[in-house]
Specification:
Elements (H helix, E strand, L loop, with lengths): L6 H10 L26 H7 L11 H6 L12 E2 L2 H5 L9 E2 L7 H17 L10 E8 L2 E9 L6 H13 L2 E6 L2 E9 L8 E13 L2 E14 L2 E9 L2 E2 L1 H19 L13
Antiparallel strand pairs: 1-3, 2-5, 3-4, 4-9, 5-6, 6-7, 7-8, 8-9, 9-10
Keywords: Signal
Protein name: Lipoprotein
Organism: Streptomyces violaceus (Streptomyces venezuelae)
Length: 274
């Protein structure tokens, strides 16, 4: 996928993409996350116990594409777009340099928040897949939804998911600057259906200027691990987040991935999925 551009390329990207939205890649526990936070157990401790019993078959490129959701799997009136179009979805509002002065533990927390913005722009929230991957994009009005399936067979995705779990506290609210323009970013924890071996969810809101007009970009971000494979969903836009669609995509998409890894054919009708 397109990597983060040079400063000149960012300016061009911002001019071309003004008023457009990124949806890369989703939402997780509502502060409970399988009870781990309520009991004082950290996400890392939970992960240490989660040597999953999920299928461990290698995810081929063909299998990854089969595991992708379809229009029938998500609510409302989403329309699938060409893969080449979805690959180039990047929102200029995610470009910016985090203001270190916003943080008490400046260098560490600011670096995590910068990583979040960069990964949302680059569509690689869990890092670059070490194995096969596939993505699919959908549009509905001014909103976009990007769904990805990827294999992390040499670098399991639990580490990045543990990192995601720390962001609502580390990056609760901060400022990012690009070209002299300041943007206010807020990050909160969100809930997901209890599917897969582990899951994390965020809602990221960016208030700034696009096309000379004040705008607020809101995206719901979700990641679900199934063994060493994972799905990521990002959905939203200038009209707000897409909580219901993300939850539906996570629920049905996780089952599709598990079916594919088990050598089964995913159900064509979402109503057939329990």
């Amino acid at each position: 996928m397109t990597r983060r551009p040079s400063p000149l390329a960012r300016v061009l990207s911002s001019a071309v993409a003004a008023g457009t939205l990124l949806t890369t890649a989703a939402c997780s526990g509502d502060g409970d996350k399988d009870g781990s936070r309520a009991s004082g157990i950290t996400a890392t401790q939970v992960a240490g116990k989660q040597q999953t019993t999920s299928p461990t078959a290698d995810l081929t490129t063909e299998a990854a594409r089969t595991a992708l959701i379809t229009e029938a799997d998500i609510e409302d009136d989403w329309s699938q777009v060409k893969d080449t179009e979805a690959e180039n979805w990047h929102d200029s509002l995610f470009i910016g340099t985090v203001d270190v002065s916003d943080f008490l533990t400046a260098k560490a927390d600011a670096a995590d928040c910068q990583r979040l913005l960069d990964s949302l722009f680059d569509d690689d929230l869990l890092g670059r897949p070490s194995g096969s991957s596939a993505l699919r994009g959908f549009e509905e009005g001014n909103s976009r939804l990007l769904y990805q399936v990827a294999s992390y067979d040499r670098t399991a995705p639990q580490g990045p998911m543990n990192w995601m779990a720390t962001l609502p506290e580390k990056c609760d609210q901060f400022t990012a600057t690009d070209g002299g323009e300041q943007r206010t970013v807020q990050v909160v924890d969100t809930s997901l259906p209890k599917v897969g071996d582990a899951r994390e969810g965020l809602r990221v809101t960016v208030q700034g200027t696009t096309g000379g007009t004040q705008a607020t970009l809101t995206v719901d971000v979700a990641a679900v691990r199934v063994g060493n494979d994972a799905i990521t969903v990002t959905a939203g836009g200038l009209d707000g987040g897409e909580t219901d669609s993300v939850e539906q995509a996570v629920k049905l998409g996780t089952q599709r991935l598990k079916d594919v890894l088990a050598g089964k054919t995913p159900a064509p009708d979402p109503s057939q999925v329990e």
